[in-house]
Automatic annotation (TrEMBL):
Residues 58-170 form the Methyltransferase type domain. One of its GO terms (molecular function) is methyltransferase activity. GO terms for biological process: methylation. Pfam families: Methyltransf_12. Keywords: Methyltransferase, S-adenosyl-L-methionine, Transferase. This is Methyltransferase type 11. It comes from Caldimonas brevitalea. SUPFAM superfamilies: S-adenosyl-L-methionine-dependent methyltransferases (SSF53335). It comes from the Bacteria.
């Protein structure tokens, strides 16, 4: 019997998750391959089982819907040793993703690629400061909150807490503003990518890692930080934040 290595399984998932973007144009396909292939967070989410099977997932600032495409590809993979690495938790079958994205061009790319997935991947064009958050088991916010000011960030996080089921999980990636060089590089690249994707370059609002963690704890989350910029010059951290059963309850 062949046992697939995690590298080979990941390459196959990368191909499968990028393929639908051919329907959304050359840029969308190249962007999907580049982002999924180079950003360590996507493989981490699967290899660490951060999104359990059957989860209702809310992806805030979802861009062109890459996470939804990856979850669809992973969920369609049989958990056989020749396809799915034995050291990874079970494939996230049956997830239903709602993506909220400000930029209509990205929402169009997401729908062109994944429109056929129905309820498994639906995309709303809206601003996270006003958009309704559906009840969710996992909320994912990757590199998005710094686009709004601190008071608005706090309000979004509070609404995320209220949308999460008890014990639900927020996966929040932020830059650590204290790590000056890595944070400055990530902000510079962020602006460049925003501009390349044809969007206006907005001001950004960072915080030191300790301040992000304190804010989440005050909202009733237990927080575990994980470095999440391996292979890149950034200072990104994934905060795995579990909603306590009763918001505000002691840890
Ligand atoms: C750096 S990209 C990250 C995209 C995606 N989360 C990923 O990791 O591939 C940030 C995304 O957040 C979106 N965004 C920025 N401000 C937003 C807002 N107020 N509401 C919803 N989305 C927003 C941007 O348009 C962009 O697609």
């Amino acid at each position: 019997m062949t046992i697939v290595s995690s590298d080979a399984a990941w390459r196959r998932l990368l191909d499968t998750a990028s393929a639908p973007y051919r329907a959304a144009g050359r840029f969308a396909w190249h962007f999907a391959r580049g982002k999924l292939g180079m950003d360590p967070v996507f493989r981490h989410l699967l290899s660490q089982g951060q999104i359990p099977p059957g989860s209702r997932v809310l992806d805030i600032g979802c861009g062109q819907g890459l996470l939804a495409s990856l979850l669809l590809a992973a969920g369609a993979t049989e958990p056989r040793p020749e396809l799915w690495p034995q050291e990874w938790p079970a494939p996230p079958r049956g997830t239903r993703v709602t993506g909220i994205e400000l930029m209509s061009r990205d929402v169009e790319r997401a729908r062109a690629a994944l429109g056929a997935a129905g309820d498994a991947a639906r995309f709303v064009c809206g601003d996270m400061r006003q958009a309704e958050f559906p009840p969710s088991d996992v909320v994912v916010i990757l590199d998005v909150l710094h686009y709004v000011n601190h008071a608005e960030q706090n309000r979004v996080l509070e609404r995320v807490r209220d949308a999460l089921s008890p014990g639900g999980r927020l996966l929040l990636r932020v830059g650590d503003a204290e790590s000056r060089r890595g944070f400055a590089i990530s902000q510079w690249v962020d602006r460049l990518v925003t501009w390349t994707r044809g969007h206006r370059v907005p001001p950004t609002f960072g915080r030191p890692l300790a301040a992000w963690i304190a804010q989440l704890q005050s909202l009733g989350f237990d927080v575990e930080p994980r470095p999440m910029s391996q292979g890149t010059p950034f200072a990104n951290v994934l905060l795995v934040a579990q909603r306590r059963a009763a918001p505000g309850a002691p840890a």
